[in-house]
Amino acid sequence: MAQQDACTLLDQDHKEAEQMFQSYRSERDDSRKLALTERLCNALRVHIQIENEIFYPAFQQATRDNKLVDESRHEHDEALSMIDTLERAGRPDDATMQKLEAAIKDHVEDERTKMFPEARASQSMDLVGLAQQLQARKSELMAGHPA
Ligand SMILES: [Fe+2]
Ligand SMILES: [Fe+2]
Fold first, then answer.
1. How far does the chain reach from its first CA to its final CA, in angstroms?
2. Closest C-alpha among 35, 32, 62 to residue 123
3. pLDDT tens, residue by residue, 26-43
4. Ligand 2 is a single-atom ion; what residues have CB below 5 A from it?
5. What is the pLDDT of residues 82-96, one digit of tens each?
6. What are phi and psi of 50, to 5 degrees?
7. Which residues belong to any copy of the Hemerythrin-like domain (predicted)?
8. How far apart are CA 145 and CA 93, in angstroms?
9. Could you tell me the distance, in angstroms and rounded to a whole number, from the CA of residue 97 to the centre of ligand 1?
10. Ligand 2 center to 26 CA (angstroms)
């Protein structure tokens, strides 16, 4: 496999999440909605955790863009609280899912248009090495959450 950079790897997760939100919107069956909710929440938790643990600290150290990192971490916390609500509901919760989708859409847009371009422009980030670290941590976390 070609060496990929960390931003490409993270954006792959974003695209998978977008697809799951879309599937949820077109799903009418409650048990399939619940299964999708579980998959989506697990995937987002893992994604947020690897960004918080690995990508954001590396980005912050390289760019000193504390403001962007603080805002992004705050958005992660807001998403996590909606994910908690969805996981506790025990039934499909369309209203919270809709709010989460909108929040994630805005957040991903900021990563794509602000954070990733800044990361790629910075000379001091090893984006290929970070991609390997992100992938390894992701595999480890997913092992605890079989899809
Ligand atoms: Fe992300
Ligand atoms: Fe994020």
1. 24
2. 62
3. 999 999 999 999 999 999
4. 51
5. 999 999 999 999 999
6. -70, -30
7. 9-118
8. 21
9. 18
10. 25
